[in-house]
């Protein structure tokens, strides 16, 4: 759908101007900032660089002062492939942060649960709450919430926003950054790098990963004295340098000068977020547009400078039929998604009393005629069954979601109704996005 929307905007010339800004609402908060831009996907590096590009790998390895060849050229496992690797015994240690995979991921019964509960594997979950994923893990690391640490996020309009730590985390909870730093202190380079890599950087022998990745001259050069006397920052005060500032300035270096410019760290604490590219202190409201984007010269109108010819790419992709369609036995389409009151798996929103009262449990939205044909009434309990699993829900024939005949809809926020026991693990061959929107189910009155 996103691809088609972008194509229409490009073909009609309705692009990079007010009212003509197509962008997707990504599935996770800060997915743009802390995944795409930073480069934490299995195929990416900072500032839109990728692991398959030798030049990009070389830039990163030199900046991070790590041996040439440390970054593999092979793309890592995407989310569904990780499940399969755990199940097949090819992946044995799995550490998740900022996600609730056991509830949000597809085909829980067949693809996720077998690998997570395999005694050969060790599963770690960092989370503030006892989510379904945390309860299925071997080790739970209590994790600080966003107001309990200092950090930043980036959203779909390219806006980077910073915040200060506001309160102390309760109990033994620590930020995810603190956890990664402590993990890096436990390993020396000889324990994680083969001899051929160490031979290229012999000065790194005997050093911990903390010294190589975090306590570097570039990252550790900002003193704790830059913090106000009463300013909370647990990580920096423990380590003795302004960790967040050092890491951000190191990261920002990758994007400056070629259309991904970020402002200096301190500028973000003086503004209500800035949209990159930020050049000479000025943010960019409309990218690729003359008069708005500093990388587009006078007279060029629009320039998509991410490509050598300055032109955007229109992808004409073939139709891909559904991996599974209704038949005589499983006679309904199932689509999944959200409701207004709850975000994704409800880890936080279900703990807000007002939101919980407004929508306390998931329901099965169904067309009144489909319900009548199955002798179902609003409020009835119903078993929703696919070829992969089953859940019990409540029939809803009214309300805001009114699916067409032949299709039922269930939100996935309710940990007591794991609708992703039903869904397929089929993925898009290009994006590797899972198809949560269509599979075949049948209904049985309870």
From TrEMBL:
InterPro entries in the cross-refs? Asp_de-COase-like_dom_sf (IPR009010), CT_Nitrate-R-NapA-like (IPR041957), MoPterin_dinucl-bd_dom (IPR006657), Mopterin_OxRdtase (IPR006656), Prok_molybdopt-oxidoreductase (IPR050123)
* Coiled-coil parts of chain: none
What this protein needs as a cofactor is: Mo-bis(molybdopterin guanine dinucleotide); [4Fe-4S] cluster
**Keyword Manganese, does the record have it?**
no
The EC number of this protein is 1.9.6.1
Under catalytic activity, the entry for this protein gives:
2 Fe(II)-[cytochrome] + nitrate + 2 H(+) = 2 Fe(III)-[cytochrome] + nitrite + H2O
**Where does it sit, as one GO cellular component term?**
membrane
SUPFAM superfamilies linked to this entry: ADC-like, Formate dehydrogenase/DMSO reductase, domains 1-3
The record's CDD domains line, in alphabetical order, gives: MopB_CT_Nitrate-R-NapA-like
- Which parts of the sequence belong to the Molybdopterin dinucleotide-binding domain? 332-440
For this entry, list what GO says about its biological process: cellular respiration; nitrate assimilation
GO: which molecular function terms? 4 iron, 4 sulfur cluster binding; molybdenum ion binding; molybdopterin cofactor binding; nitrate reductase (cytochrome) activity
- Keyword list, A-Z: 4Fe-4S, Electron transport, Iron, Iron-sulfur, Metal-binding, Molybdenum, Nitrate assimilation, Oxidoreductase, Periplasm, Signal, Transport
Q: Where does the Molybdopterin oxidoreductase domain lie?
A: 3-185
What exactly does this protein do? Catalytic subunit of the periplasmic nitrate reductase complex NapAB. Receives electrons from NapB and catalyzes the reduction of nitrate to nitrite.
The family assignment reads: Belongs to the prokaryotic molybdopterin-containing oxidoreductase family. NasA/NapA/NarB subfamily.
Q: Which PANTHER family match?
A: PERIPLASMIC NITRATE REDUCTASE, RESPIRATORY NITRATE REDUCTASE
What is the name of the protein in this document? nitrate reductase (cytochrome)
Q: Which organism is it from?
A: Escherichia coli
């Amino acid at each position: 759908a996103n691809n088609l929307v972008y194509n229409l905007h490009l073909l009609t010339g309705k692009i990079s101007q007010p009212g003509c800004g197509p962008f997707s609402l990504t599935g996770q908060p800060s997915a743009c900032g802390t995944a795409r831009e930073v480069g934490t996907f299995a195929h990416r590096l900072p500032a839109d660089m990728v692991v398959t590009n030798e030049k990009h790998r070389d830039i990163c390895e030199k900046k991070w002062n790590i041996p040439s060849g440390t970054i593999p050229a092979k793309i890592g496992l995407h989310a569904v492939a990780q499940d399969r690797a755990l199940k097949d015994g090819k992946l044995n240690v799995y550490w998740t942060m900022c996600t609730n995979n056991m509830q949000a991921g597809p085909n829980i019964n067949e693809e996720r649960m077998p690998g997570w509960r395999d005694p050969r594997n060790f599963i770690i979950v960092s989370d503030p709450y006892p989510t379904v994923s945390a309860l299925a893990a071997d080790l739970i690391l209590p994790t600080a919430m966003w107001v309990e640490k200092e950090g930043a996020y980036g959203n779909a309009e390219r806006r980077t926003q910073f915040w200060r730590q506001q309160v102390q985390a309760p109990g033994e909870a620590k930020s995810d950054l603190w956890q990664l730093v402590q993990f890096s202190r436990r390993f020396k380079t000889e324990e994680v790098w083969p001899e051929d890599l160490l031979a290229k950087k012999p000065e790194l022998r005997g050093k911990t990963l903390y010294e190589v990745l975090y306590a570097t001259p570039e990252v550790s050069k900002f003193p704790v004295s830059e913090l106000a006397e009463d300013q909370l920052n647990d990580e920096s005060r423990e380590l003795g340098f302004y960790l967040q500032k050092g890491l951000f300035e190191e990261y920002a270096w990758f994007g400056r000068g070629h259309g991904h410019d970020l402002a200096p760290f301190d500028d973000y604490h003086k503004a209500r977020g800035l949209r990159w590219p930020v050049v000479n202190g000025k943010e960019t409201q409309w990218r690729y547009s003359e008069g708005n984007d500093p990388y587009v010269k006078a007279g060029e109108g629009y320039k998509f400078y991410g490509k050598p010819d300055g032109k955007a790419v229109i992808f004409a992709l073939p139709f891909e039929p559904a991996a599974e369609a209704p038949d005589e036995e499983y006679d309904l389409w199932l689509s999944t998604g959200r409701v207004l009151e709850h975000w994704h798996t409800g880890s936080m929103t279900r703990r807000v009393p007002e939101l919980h009262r407004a929508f306390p449990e998931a329901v099965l939205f169904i067309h009144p005629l489909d319900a009548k044909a199955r002798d179902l009434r609003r409020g009835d309990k119903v078993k929703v069954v696919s070829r992969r699993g089953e859940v019990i829900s409540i029939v809803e024939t009214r309300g805001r979601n009114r699916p067409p005949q032949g299709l039922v809809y269930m939100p996935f926020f309710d940990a007591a109704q794991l609708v992703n026991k039903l869904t397929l693990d089929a993925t898009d061959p290009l994006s590797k996005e899972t198809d949560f929107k269509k599979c075949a189910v049948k209904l049985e009155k309870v």
